Every structure is written in structure tokens, then in C-alpha cells.
Amino acid sequence: MLNKISEFTDYFDAFKLRFGRKNKELNNAYASDELKNTFENDIKPQLKSIELNRESLHAKFIKRKRQLNFVILPIAALITIFALFAGEDGSFLYIIPVSFCIGTGWAYKPALDYVRHYKLKVMPILVKMYGDFTYSLKSNLQANDIKNLAIAPNFDYLKTEDCVTGKIDDIGFEFTELTLHKRSKNGSNRVFKGCLVLLTMPFNFNSHTLVKHDHGKVLNWLTKDNKATEKVALENVDFENKFEVYSNDQVLARYILTPVMMEQLLSLLYAFVMKVNATQLECEFVGNKAVFFIRHTENLLEPTWIDQSAFEINALPLIEQELALLISIAKQLNLDLMAARRVSKENNLDSKS
């Protein structure tokens, strides 16, 4: 049963490629010297097998697209026309859109297989440029892991894609693209699309602090969470115009959201807006976790399309730029310095005792 569900999901993902594909080669990102060296020394030796796989899947992709456009859809149209002339009811009109959806998923499946094969071969090498990081196609995060977060919207099921995990000094790091859906009478509604960045600190924040998007007074009141209901007034006007802060401890909230941290959060928001067309950034500090929800519609970490040679470097500079932006969050917000100070303080206390 699970295999059938997974197979259906694959064909649905392939169908979405028809409309969601982004031409990564058309961007202004430039390869760094480190990326060029990594490409020449580590990635290029892998590309011969990747290119052979691409050529095989590309031929299958072209063949299936032709069959879809010149056989399947014309037959579906003819059946519908004959049915209408025969006096049948309008139910036959569904043949064309159903054939299009199923046929598109089937036709684009080889393209999806290539994208995944490329990622599994190349992405583990790319993420090593930034330290001890690993890559997988999906995250192991479960629905309850997300539902326990106050900044998460109400949802019923999730889908993850592209997961990068590792450590930044003493901080655990996990990134994944995330889509959340809520069931409704008419099917399901997407309530979130973007990415989640989870930082596991070597200390406890000893408070629960939320940094939420400023929706205006009425919506802010309606969406505030019972876990952290005290509004925290801060002195940065620009920050207050973008965010609403709630916490169960005013003092500790200000310890986290220092003037420097507020400026860096604003800079981080603008960086995501500029580089991945983000529309919203929210974060939560609870226990030993710092969690960031970044709302955007573009797919990150995507290679060039199947019709481009695997030896092309065109998409990699943008992937490098996106990875650098995501992995820099801890340092951008000075959380690495906060962690280092806490660890040093605890070590000093242990040595004295």
C-alpha cells in the first residue's frame, strides 16, 4: 500500500514539473573559486555516469511527450467528440483533462528521475563545501514535530523535499523545503510553502519567544499563541514594522533579541526576499531549538533541466548561493557566538566545581 502511495506521489510530483520547473541557467549567480575547484576535482568525475543516465532518460522523456501530444490527447479528444455527436451526456468531457493530467505525470516521470539522480550524486558533494553536512531527498521530520511549534500554521499533512543536516560549530543544523496542507470540504488547501531551518543549540533558551510576521493589529490578536502571549515591545522601529514578538519571559526575550540580533533578522529577511523571493520570515526560540519558517514559492537547490548536459555548471552557482544563504543563518544572527559564550560559561562553572 505504501509503495502504491509513493508511486502515485512520484507521478504527481512529475506532473508538477510541467508547470513548476525553473530555468536555473537563466540567473546572475557566478561560481566561486571554491565551487569551480569542487566541480573540477570532485563533481566532474561523477558526471560521465550522470550524463549517460541523463541521455537515456531524456530520450524516454521526449518519446513520452510525443506520445502524449500526438497520440493520447488526440485520441481523448476524438472520443469526446464522437460521444457528444452520439448524444452522450457531458461526463465524457472529463476524458481530456484526466488524460492530460495522467499523461503529463507519466511523460515527465523520466525528468523527475533524472533530477533526483543528479541530486543524489552531486548535492552530497556540494554541501561538504560548507562543513560536515549531509544531503537527502527528504527530511525525517514528522507532522507532530511541526505541530508542536507555535509558529506553524494549522495543517493535516506535510511534504518535505531536499534535506541538509549537519553541525555549525556546536549548533545542530537542519534545512528542508516544506509544504503543509489542510484538509477541506473541497479537497485540501496549501497553507504553507517554503522552507524550515532548525537549529539545535547546546543550551536551553529557558523561555518561549515567537517572532511573527506583522499582520496588523486585528490579525495579530487573532493569530497569537497561548504559549507565548505577552507582547514584547522593542525599540527598533524598523523591526517593529515587520515583526510582532511574543514571549512568556520579557527579560529573556530581550536577551535573545538584542539590537544586533534585530538588525540581523531584518537583513536576513531582506536577503531571502532578494534571493529566493521570500514573502515572510518567522522564528521561534523554545527549549534548545531556534526554528525558522521562511515562506516562498520557488523550489530551491534545483539542477538544470533534463535537456541540458550534466557537464554544464550553469545551475550550480545559484545552488551554491542558496546553500550559503541557508547555512549562514546561525552566523548571521550571531547564534554561534551566543552558543560559544554559553558553552564557555558552562565549562568554567564545571571546572570550578
Automatic annotation (TrEMBL):
Keywords for this protein: Membrane, Transmembrane, Transmembrane helix
Transmembrane portions of the chain: 68-86, 92-111
InterPro entries, per database record: DUF3137
Classification via Pfam families: DUF3137
Listed name of the protein: Galanin
